[in-house]
Amino acid sequence: MAVWAIGDLQGCYDPTRRLLDAIRFDPAQDRLWFCGDLVNRGGESIETLRLVHSLRDNVVSVLGNHDLSLLAIAERREEDQRKVNADLQGVLFAPDRDVLLDWLRRCPLLHVDRTLGWMMLHAGLAPRWTTELAERHAGEIQRKLRSDGYRKLLRNMYGDRPAWSPNLAGPDRDRAIINIFTRMRYCAPKGRIAFEEKGQPGTQQPGLYPWYEVPGRAERDLKIVCGHWSTLGLFIGHGVHAIDTGAVWGGKLTALQLDADTLRIVQVPGRDVSDLPPRKPGA
Ligand SMILES: [Mn+2]
After folding, report:
1. CA of 266 to the centre of ligand 1 (A)
2. What range(s) does the Calcineurin-like phosphoesterase domain occupy (predicted)?
3. Which of 114, 126, 208, 232 stands the most exposed, by the fewest C-beta atoms within 10 Å?
């Protein structure tokens, strides 16, 4: 029995298969935690989503910004769905899309396992959020995504404002919670997200902090595994284990064993980008 957390797949099917081989994944006894952003940009999003879905009895996956974006696009008119990139269209116009997207929509924003001593989220937590507060706010969104109101939530999801405050209500509250869990990298001490900052620590404007280093942040009683921040790379510190190592940008795909006494990390090469024009990592 092993529990592995795996970084952002972003439609990188071959690296995913290679990583599962490298960790000798055994569906009879192992569990996989995916940090979100299963889809987009890698070119094989439909194959990747089908693979993860086929393993769903062994899998917990948290929603990332690209996953939520796919769900939102899937609710638009067909002519608008034809305007998105070919990789996402491969999912949107697949015969099994409804099965796959219904499963994806039911994924949580936060997964907490107190027995194991770990929690997983895609991007970050607000400075004041304890584990319990994070569970409460993730639960608010999860309930809506699993209810008949999910279309309304997805329609009102986009936007950078407002910053999180406990007094928010309605779509503003939903948007602020989703932005923290799925888009956070840097924030101001009171938690305002600096959406434009996507580089390595040290490159940010003065007064901004990586979300896990904000002065006065809440104590969290569980170790955290997350993804989303490819320019940060593999980072372990402050109880946070960030494992998006940029597979989609030609970096690596990373697995971290969560139930081992000592940290065990397995990496495989990411997508082959040698014949693609250079692109700047982001979003
Ligand atoms: Mn992301």
Report:
1. 21
2. 1-83
3. 114
The rounded Å distance from CA 229 to ligand 1 centre is: 7
Per the structure, the complete domain to which residue 17 belongs is given by 3-269
Does a structural domain hold residue 114?
yes
Does the residue 277 lie in any domain?
no
Q: What is the pTM of this model?
A: 0.97
Q: CA nearest 258: which of 94, 60, 107?
A: 60
Please calculate the CA angle 243-142-174 and round it to the nearest 5 degrees.
90
Residue 278 in domain: no
Look at residues 209, 54, 36 and name the one whose alpha carbon lies nearest to residue 120: 36
pLDDT tens for each residue of 64-107:
999 999 999 999 999 999 999 999 999 999 999 999 999 999 99
Domain count, the chain: 1
Is residue 197 helix, strand or coil?
A: coil
